[in-house]
Amino acid sequence: MILGQGRAVSRFADAMRSGAIHHAWLLAGPRGVGKASFAREATRRLLAEAAGPPIALPGIETPEEHPIAHFLAARSHPDYRELVRLERKEGGLGRNISIDQVRSLGELFNSTPFLSPWRAVVIDSADDLEAAAANALLKMLEEPPANCLFLLVAHAPGRLLPTIRSRCRRLDFQSLDDDAMTSILKSIAPGQSEAETARLVSLAGGSAGRALDFAALDLAPLEEAATVILREGDRTNARRSKLAQGMSGKASAERYAAFLALVPSLIAREARQLDGPRRERALDAYAQARETAAVARRLGLDPAATIFQLGGVLAGVASLP
C-alpha cells in the first residue's frame, strides 16, 4: 500500500481503468516519498490485470497470492525490466544508468510478450541516466512499442531532457505528512520507540526514505554534534573540524550523504523554536545549507571541506544578534 499519495494513486488507477493509459509517466517529487514503491506496485497491478484473473482490490494494489505477484517477487517476470544504477566491482553503485542498460531493453521490445499483451519498464531514477542513455531512451519514448508502459522516477525532473518530459504524463508526489510518516516507520521498524519515531519524523522533512536512512546509519551522534554547533557556535572551529574528520574516507560515504540531508532538517527544526534575528538567520542558513549540500552532491566536492563549510553555516545561527 502506498501511504500519503492518494491523489497520485487515484489518478493512475483512473487511467488504468479507462483502457487508454499513456505509455510513459514521469513520477516527480522529493526523494523518499514513495515514487519507486508506487512504480513497482503500479506495474505489478497493470501486468496482473492484463494476465488475469481479475482483481477486485481498489487503487493499484495486487493480492500477494496473484501469480503475477509471485513472478515479480522472484524477479523472473519476462515482460518486466527495471533500470537502476548497478553495483561496481570495487563496491558501491555506479554513478549513472548507462546507455548499454537502456539498449538492453531492445530484447524486451523485440520479442513477443509472454504472460500478457503488456510489457513494463521502471527507471529508478531517470535523474541517473547518463547523457547517451537519456537520448537512447528518448528514441523509445518517441516511437513506443505497443502495449508498453514506462514509469520514470524523477527526484529533479527539471534536469531531464525537455523532450523526455514532453513525452511523459507527469504524476506529482508530495512530501508525506506526519501521520503517513509515522505509519510507514512503525510498519518497517515496529520495535522502534515512540520517542525515536517522533524524532525521525521531525528530522526527515516528509521523506520516509530519509528517516529510514537516518535510523539505519546511526546518525544520532552526528545530530548531537551538529546541534551543539547550531546552538552554541564554534568560535575556534574545533567542533566542525572534529565533525569533518569523523566522516572522512570511503567507509563513511553513506553517512556523509545522509548528513548532507540531515543538516537542513536540523536547521528547519531549530527555526521553528526561534524568533527575532535568530529565526531570520536560521531561515537564511536553511537555504544556504540546502544549496551547499546540492552543489556538493552534483559536483562531488571533498566531503571534509563540505562538512567544515556546513559547520560554519550551523555556527552562524548561534552568533550574537
Task: Describe the protein's architecture and organization.
- The protein has 15 helices and 5 strands.
- The protein is an alpha/beta fold and 321 residues long.
- The protein has 2 domains: 167 residues, P-loop containing nucleotide triphosphate hydrolases (Rossmann fold, 3-Layer(aba) Sandwich), CATH 3.40.50.300; 102 residues.
- A 5-stranded parallel sheet has the order 2-3-4-1-5.
- Helix 6 links the parallel strand 3 and strand 4.
- 37% of the residues are buried.
Write the layout of secondary structure elements.
Layout: H1 6-18, E1 24-28, H2 35-51, H3 67-73, E2 80-83, H4 99-103, H5 105-109, E3 119-124, H6 131-142, E4 148-154, H7 162-166, E5 169-172, H8 178-188, H9 194-204, H10 208-216, H11 220-232, H12 238-245, H13 253-271, H14 276-299, H15 303-318
Parallel strand pairs: 1-4, 1-5, 2-3, 3-4
CATH class of the largest domain: Alpha Beta
Secondary-structure element order, N to C? HEHHEHHEHEHEHHHHHHHH
CATH topology of the largest domain: Rossmann fold
User: Which structural class do the helices and strands define?
Assistant: alpha/beta
The second-level CATH architecture of the largest domain is 3-Layer(aba) Sandwich
Q: CATH H-level name of the largest domain... which superfamily? A: P-loop containing nucleotide triphosphate hydrolases
What percentage of amino acids are in beta strands? 5-15%
How many strand elements? 5
